[in-house]
Amino acid sequence: MTLAELEHQTHIKRQTLRIIEDNNFEALNNANYAEGLITKYANAVNFDAEQLIEAHREEIPNYQNSINASIQAFKQEEKPTYRSKSKEALQLLVVICGVVIITAIIWILAVLIF
Known about the structure:
By secondary structure, the protein is mostly helical. The chain has helices at 3-10, 14-21, 34-44, 49-55, 63-76, 88-113. Helix content is 65%, strand content 0%.
């Protein structure tokens, strides 16, 4: 079976299939999906997925370590600072409302007087 046929059958990118065939599991983009990708690959080539996973258990990235590393990186990130809201927009709104109200009052008085 060629890589193109395998890619079509498994819907796994050719680059990822090469990584699996080369047993370079550390190069997989997402350690959380490593076992699933290997299982899908093994089923496509009629090989026992559990046997393949057990044979390469030490090489497959541990998703728990990946999760812990992500949590640690998130905790160490600097929190974003938030700007205080600009009061210019509120001041402009108050001025516009004031002008509209004064114009309405003058217009009403002009209609009543004349």
